[in-house]
Each structure stands twice: as C-alpha cells, then as structure tokens.
C-alpha cells in the first residue's frame, strides 16, 4: 500500500511521464517519413547530427545496467566493482576508436550495410553468414528483459507501482514510438535521454557531499565507512563475485573492449552520414561514456553504508534516492533512470527487428514467397519494413512474458545475452580488418563454434563466471576462424591446381 508521500510522488512522476510520453511519440511521428524504407527504419543514415548520434551511442551503452545493475554490484561487493566502471569508459572507448573508421568505410560497400549481419555478409560475400548472425542477435531478448526488470524495480521501490505494471509501461511505450519513427525517433530520443542521464549521473556523485559528508575527503570517508562495515568491501578483489581474481577482472576488460561490437552499437556507426563526421561522433560518444559510466556507481557504495540490509541489491540506487533526495530531485532522477532504460531498450528492439526484416525476411523468406511474382526491390523493401514492425510487437510480447520472473541479478542477466553474441561475432569482425586470408568458411565456423561454446560453458555450469566463459569462447572463436580460413584457402588452392592439371591433360 502506498504511503501519502509515495502517492504524491507517484502523481508528480506520472504527470512527468505523460509529458515525456507525448514528447517521444511526437518524435516518433516526425520520424515516420524517414522510416518507410528499410534504410530509414534501421539507421536513418545522414538524417541525424553526428554529435547526437554519439550521445545516443553512450545512452544505448549505459542502460539500466550502469544506473541500477552495477550500483547493485557495488552494494553487494564494494569497491572492486570500480574495475568494471572504469573499464566502461576507458576500455570501451578505445575499442570504439579502433573499429569505427574501418567499420564505416566497409559499411559503404555493396550499396551500404544497414545492420551488423549485413555488414558481415557483405564483407565475406555470404548470405548464410548474414542469416546466422541475425539469428544470433535474437539473444538480445535477455538484454531487453534486463531493461524491463530495471524499470519495474525502480518504479516499485520509489513510488510503489507494482512490478508487473512497471514492465507493461516500459514495453508499451518503447514499442509505440519505435514502430512509428524507427531509427530517427530512436536516435533523437536517445540523444535527449543521454544528456539528461549525464546530468543525473553527476548529481548522484555530488550527493555524496550531503549524504556521506567530509568535504574534499568525501571519497576517503566513504572508503573508511565501507571498510568499517566489512574490510572485504574495500579489497582489490571480492570472493564469490564477478571480480574474484585478477584473471576474472582481465576477462571483464575483454568483455568491455568487445562490447562495442554489439549490433545496437555498431548500427550507430552506420547511421553517420559522412566520413568527416566520424571524429565528431567518437568524441561525443566518449564524453557521454565518461559521464554515464563513472559516477552513478558511487550511489551504490553510499547505499551500502547508509541503507544496509536491502533485500534486493538492484534496489540500492532507488532506495538511496528515495531516502536522501528532495521530491524535485527524486522526480528528476527517476526521469533520468527511465531515460537510461528506454534509451537502450529502443536500440535493442530496433536492432533485432531490423535484422529480422533486413537479414532474415529479405534474404530467406521473400525470395521463396515471391520468386515468381517479379516484385521490385522497392516493393520487397517495403514488405521487409512491415515485417520488422510486426516482429517488434511479437518480441515485445515475448520480453513482457519473460520479464515476469524477476532475476537475482540484473547485470548477470544482461551479460549473458550480450556475451553469447560477442563470442560469435568478435573474431569474424576484428580479423576482417587486418587479415587478408579471413574468408567466409572461417567466419561461419567461428560464429557457430564461438557462440555454441559460450552457451555450453554457461548452460551446463562448466564455467559459472560469464566473463571468463566469454573470454574462453572468444579465443576458441579466433582459433577456429584462423584454422577454418586457412583450410578453406588450402582446399581452394588444391582445387585450382587440379583444374589446371586437368586442362593440361586435355
């Protein structure tokens, strides 16, 4: 039952959310004219400013994980979680700087790539690879569920809205404006949300000065209080956590370096209209990553000192905000966290449904359905957009159902889906940059073996540490890619020699 304060807060937040709803639906309607083609629906290429696309990249990256999940880890394990947050900015941005230019340039080949699966398919001249990677991207459903859980947890903790209603709100709102405006609506709204989130992240850090206290020595004071509560909270590593050893932390850094290769993030690179705009995009993305990944974790550490004994670690930041912030700031922070969640969820929905329309329907289904009907390329493209919109509603319903059972850790659920994708695509994507012998046989084998290895290690409990399982699977993927490519090249050379010999005999 809601208290009087929660009732008042619920009405204020409800009014703000309604205004927010109208704003993003308006952007959705504005984007409708750009989303009639598959190109407009999936990347809105050249229609949005590069600095706004960069902010959208950071906003999509951050999600409920950096505002709820990672601070929840900080609440449970203490300062070892800083290994993760520092890597989110430094390591991920390095990864972005390494891959952006080449990825964008290769994305312009063959009339341009609209999705990561199509990019890989074009690079290796393989429709089979394009379809396999598109199917692999469906693992992002776990990432969407993690966002739904984060949104519902925040509403439940701060204003007492039942968990299920929070999930329903998030799914319905996101599907509505993505179905109308496609990539244009997603990029614009994410850009706005990223600015709000950056302000909120800094505000959460500044709150330490009035909750923990100590002036310029606030961080030292916080560390001391954590150490007094439990010395393990300030150790370099934390037993029974994702940060249990130096090797585990190294595996986490590998995850953060390769995280940039996820389709919902690489699609942002493809959205940049001109090559000279890539510098603006990467600088904007880096600045946003810094603000969003660095500061909010300290609210989780402060909550461990000030509000010990929470039943759910993922509720650390919502509980901290509710306890120590005035109503006006609570409303602002709630809107910021809603922005963090929706900015990732919309990119995930868009990436998955664009792949279904562009990489599965156009490549596999449409040629079978219309092989004797002589439809134009434009007609097939419009049908693909329609299929993508239908898939959006179906995936929304599936994520709604999967979100009803609250997971133990939002962050671990998120890492599972993303790691399955990364373990498959990391070798084919990175080796395509600098290894001339990389070919489609090696790429297909690497995607299948890398992703299968990760699912086997985690699914059968062989390796419980998700990040270590990803590292092992990625390394196996590289090995299979190299071996498969060399074997295919050898067989091709052998075949050519035999053909020459046969021609000489004739």
TrEMBL record:
Catalytic activity: L-proline(in) + Na(+)(in) = L-proline(out) + Na(+)(out)
Transmembrane regions: 6-27, 48-75, 81-99, 128-145, 165-185, 192-212, 243-262, 283-307, 319-342, 387-404, 410-434, 441-463, 469-488
Coiled coil: none
Compartments it resides in: Cell membrane
Broad class of the protein's primary localization: membrane
Alphabetical list of InterPro entries matching this protein: Na/Glc_symporter_sf, Na/solute_symporter, Sodium:Solute_Symporter
Keywords (A to Z) from UniProt: Cell membrane, Ion transport, Membrane, Sodium, Sodium transport, Symport, Transmembrane, Transmembrane helix, Transport
Domain of life according to the entry: Bacteria
Membrane topology designation: Multi-pass membrane protein
Family the entry assigns: Belongs to the sodium:solute symporter (SSF) (TC 2.A.21) family.
Protein name: Sodium transporter
